[in-house]
Amino acid sequence: MKYISYCLVVGLLLTSCFSNKDEADAYGVFEAVEITVSAENNGKLLFFDIEEGSIYEEGTIVGCIDTLHLSLQIRQLEASIKATLARRPDMPSQIRTLQDKLETLEKEKIRVANLVEANAATTKQLDDINAEISITKSQIIATTSTLSTQSQSIIEEVEAMRFQKLQLENALSTCKIKIPTKGTVINKYIQANELAFQGKPLFKIADLNNMFIKVYVTEDLLSSVKLGQDVEIRMDSKGKTTKKFSGKVAWISPRAEFTPKMIQTKDERVNLVYAVKINFKNDGSAKIGMPGDVIFK
Asked: What is the mean pLDDT of residues 130-148?
């Protein structure tokens, strides 16, 4: 009888040991990085070739917002730039006219100076030429300054219009709706031919191959959890079996918080815990929002 009792105790201890070994260290739900893509422009959605549940590669064009009004604005700016540049003064030709006049006066000055030396002309004639030369030089300086100011003003005006054109071209490029990252479309919020406006959500995409589970651990367990640590992730599967994934600790919250309401019992929700994010490769079994538990190795 004592022998039987001893065997029962040993058996219970062994069962207890194995039970503790398989007991989860923490619980959470499966999540993925979700990106909501919104319209960056206003207009009719000309086409929107996207389906929920389908996988798309990064950069794939899946839709386009009407670009007619932007194209017309760009053409209008191009015409304005061309017309404004046509008003730019022809500075070299205008300055050249005054320089030719100055060269002629310089030659006339030499001729008159020779005549004055030969007493064939008066000094007043030489003074008049010198005065005219001085006036012509002043005209060249003033004209150069005026034309430079006019030309600079036109250049700045054209530069401002070119920046406006760049803004319109950038807006035009955002009319093309592209996939931001490879993933699966999980929600579609609009249909082709509907009106899109800036900031309106178009679809939501998530990388379901690389998911994570966020769990909450108590302070006594936190000391044994480290970044990069291997973790066994488990989820319930068909036929009361357990599906397992291998994961790694990617993030540990530096601050304590109360246990979220969705985790465990009411009593445990008053405990202070630390959030831990564990990344893992999904084979398609795990779905966003499904519950799971983890065992830290």
From this structure: 89
CB 230 within 8 A of CB 297: yes
Give the residue-averaged pLDDT of 107-128.
Answer: 87
Task: Give pLDDT, residue 265.
Answer: 45
227 vs 64: CA distance, rounded Å: 43
Determine the Cα–Cα distance for residues 209 and 78; give it in Å rounded to an integer: 47
pTM of the model: 0.69
Neighbours of 168 (CB within 10 A): 19
Together in a domain, 187 and 264: no
Q: Are residues 159 and 242 in the same domain?
A: no
**Is 77 among the domain residues?**
yes
Give the C-alpha separation, 295 to 230, whole Å: 9
For the stretch 174-195, pLDDT in tens is 999 999 999 999 999 999 999 9
CB within 8 Å of 135: residues ≥ 6 apart: none
d(CA 175, CA 170): 9
Enumerate the β-bridge partners of residue 272: 258
Question: Does the pLDDT of residue 22 top 60, yes or no?
Answer: yes
Torsion of CA 129, 134, 140, 145, to 10 degrees: -160
Structure tokens at 119: 């007493």
Domain that holds residue 135: 70-173
> Does position 12 have pLDDT exceeding 90, yes or no?
no
CB atoms within 10 A of CB 127: 11
Tell me which of 239 and 61 has the higher pLDDT: 61
Site of tokens 């955002």: 174
**DSSP character string of 152-196:** HHHHHHHHHHHHHHHHHHHHHHTTEEE-SSSEEEEEE---TTSEE
